[in-house]
Amino acid sequence: MSGKDLRMKRFMPSRDGRIVIFPLDHGVSCGPLPGLRDMESIIGTGIRAGCDALVLHKGMMRRLEAVPERPPGVFMHLSASTPMGPAYHYKVMAGDVEEAIRRGADGVSAQLNLGDEHEPEMLRDLGALGSACCKWQIPLLVMAYVRGGLAPSPVPDSAVAHAARVAAELGADLVKVPLPRDEAVLAQIAADLHVPVVVAGGSSVTDATDFLCRMERALKSGARGVAAGRNVFQHAEPERVMRALCGLVHRDLPAARAWAEAGPKGT
């Protein structure tokens, strides 16, 4: 077993080969969002509810030291940009693999935005990151999107599939994509790629059961997991939402049952 395979087992310990990722990297791109102001609390919430992986920027990894619960696998997120600058969709590298190893990460993650004017630079950086992850045997999660001044609007499913393929071609061990409108496209993406595909939770919605139904359809279409941030930490019952997601992913529960069992009577 390679070092990368061993680390992947920390992210996907269940025999079902599926994963629930809790991204908490929004502070750089969105600022101090509600739900992310007390990082120790929300990290603990995700761990208690059973998430398999956390995504954190380097500075927030030290918050793990104050969390009493045993952490799951941790991806250190390397991409950064803010809406206050001139190129919001241009994700630059704000760290590297060696630093992630020194800080105790089990893997790294990066975002790729195809359709931005700086797409060539992001492709170059992702290629170099894939090489470094191979050298150091560190799993690479790539969040593949179609965003920027040259991106079509609305984004066609074919572009989502292209972004996923680029991520896999350049070395991703896990690929995160937005849920395509046509679930058959997601099924084809999952079948074509040689690496697990997880779907993004998307913007926060008020109806948790509607969100869970979308994630259930994604899993039935071949997704190997879910990466949900705002629909968890911005919900009034974040721990319940995460427990429900784990029920969907690891127990194959229907959305309505997962939500019901995750409630007070199901704990």
Automatic annotation (TrEMBL):
Keyword Methyltransferase listed: no
A UniProt-annotated Pfam family: DeoC
Top-level taxon in the UniProt lineage: Bacteria
Key words, A-Z: Lyase
Entry EC no(s): 4.1.2.13
Transmembrane segments: none
GO molecular function: fructose-bisphosphate aldolase activity
Active-site residue list: 145 (proton donor), 176 (schiff-base intermediate with dihydroxyacetone-p)
Keyword Cytoplasm: no
Protein name: Fructose-bisphosphate aldolase
Source organism (scientific name): Syntrophobacter fumaroxidans (strain DSM 10017 / MPOB)
Lineage: Bacteria, Pseudomonadati, Thermodesulfobacteriota, Syntrophobacteria, Syntrophobacterales
